[in-house]
Amino acid sequence: MMTRMMQGLRRPQGLRRLHAEAGVTLVEMMVVIVIIGLVTAIVVINVLPSQDTARVEKARADLRVIEQALELYRLDNSRYPAMEEGLEALTRAAGPDGAAREAYIRRLPNDPWGRAYLYVIPGANGPFDLFSYGADGREGGQGVDADIGNWQ
Questions:
Q1: What's the pTM?
Q2: In CATH, what class is 23-149?
Q3: What is the mean pLDDT of residues 34-44?
Q4: Is the pLDDT of residue 63 over 90?
């Protein structure tokens, strides 16, 4: 009787074999980690240059918006803001006669690298120059470090 009970407690042969093969080996884990690393490297290599291009395009778009606000200011006031007033004059809500009006631009954006856009009047390339020094923050440069301005 005891042997019959013991036979009933035995596991079937197929289940025992499955249990011995279950699990993941260290080699399999390492292969998966290497594949994930390769895919990550490919994505990073392809995405980072696009980020630099997007920043340059954002700076150009910001300059166009600020330039339009400067033109509206000139239409209302018959002049561009003086150097002393700077671009901050575009955010003030007052017309040429001092009457309250909507601001020409809600807020002045910073360039994509976190610095303020530069404004010079009179400009070397027109009535005014509006520009950013690019990624390096210094005059001149090439590629992403090149100056971005309303003269381009």
A1: 0.66
A2: alpha beta
A3: 92
A4: yes
